[in-house]
Amino acid sequence: MGKAITHKQVLEKFGQKMQKVRQSSGVTQEELAARLGMHRTYIGLIERGERNPTIRTLYKIAKALKVPASDLLPF
């Protein structure tokens, strides 16, 4: 059986996937933050795996990027 993934690894993988989707959409951190009513630094913290966004925030991010929420999940 494979090695268990840690909480930190989940956050990092989510952040990396979110960044990839955001960049593929041609959206900057500043633009995404403005769409969400959040500060740009919070977006950066999520993308670096330093914050654990709520499910509600995940759906807001997906809506702002015009993608299904499942596209943001790294698994």
From TrEMBL:
This is DNA-binding protein. It comes from the Bacteria. Residues 18-72 form the HTH cro/C1-type domain. The keyword Cytoplasm does not apply. GO terms for cellular component: cytosol. The lineage of its organism: Bacteria, Candidatus Daviesiibacteriota. Signal peptide: none annotated. Keywords: DNA-binding. GO terms for molecular function: DNA binding; DNA-binding transcription factor activity. InterPro entries: Cro/C1-type_HTH, Lambda_DNA-bd_dom_sf, TransReg_Diox_bact_type. SUPFAM superfamilies: lambda repressor-like DNA-binding domains. Pfam families: HTH_3.
